[in-house]
Design goal:
- This is Rpn family recombination-promoting nuclease/putative transposase.
- This protein is mainly alpha-helical.
- The chain has 3 helices and no strands.
- The longest helix is centred in the middle third of the chain and has 53 residues.
- It is rod-shaped.
- It starts with 6 loop residues before the first helix and ends with a helix.
Length: 86
């Protein structure tokens, strides 16, 4: 005589698979979020550094267009720094 698996055993296996799938998705999402956060943080840091350099160059009375070119900032960003530093 062959015994069939009880329905609860099949359901229990399904629940276990679902739980592992959710855990895996959660971990992947968390890792992706951390990576995005790191990239954004690096970008913010680079912009802040460029702005600090631009402020120093403005103090040396260099042309705004030149400062924008060497720092990678826009002319508008450099002009805003210029008006703030007056």
């Amino acid at each position: 005589m062959i015994w069939a698996k009880p329905a609860w055993a099949t359901h229990l296996k399904w629940l276990w698979v679902e739980e592992n799938t959710v855990k895996k998705a959660k971990n992947e999402g968390k890792e992706e979020g951390i990576q995005i956060g790191k990239e954004e943080g690096i970008q913010i840091g680079e912009t802040q550094k460029a702005m600090a350099i631009a402020q120093n160059l403005l103090q040396e009375k260099l042309p705004i267009a030149y400062i924008a070119k060497v720092t990678g900032l826009t002319i508008k960003q450099v002009e805003q720094l210029y008006t703030v530093s007056l």
